[in-house]
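Hey,
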Amino acid sequence: MSTLDPAQRRAVLAHRSRLASRGLSRFEVVGRFEDRALLRDIARRLATNDEAAAKLREAVQVPPHRFEGTRGEIAKWLLRSPLVGSGLTFEREQVEPRDVEL
């Protein structure tokens, strides 16, 4: 805001003050250009703070328990495979490294 003249600076501060009195805040979001309208629409709907906004918040929030205790989940998933105990063995062919000219 240092490049603004005093009148513009006062106008920006007054606008931000009015937003704050309504419980709102301006912030910047980085996203894909194609999602610009979608993000603005979501922000506009959330700013209404009504029942629809509460449903939207609930829909987009990731439950905190979703990522708890995920350590070892891939190994557990692989061990539940029907191929476990079938006697299949997989061997990878051992090949000499290639000479690469840089």
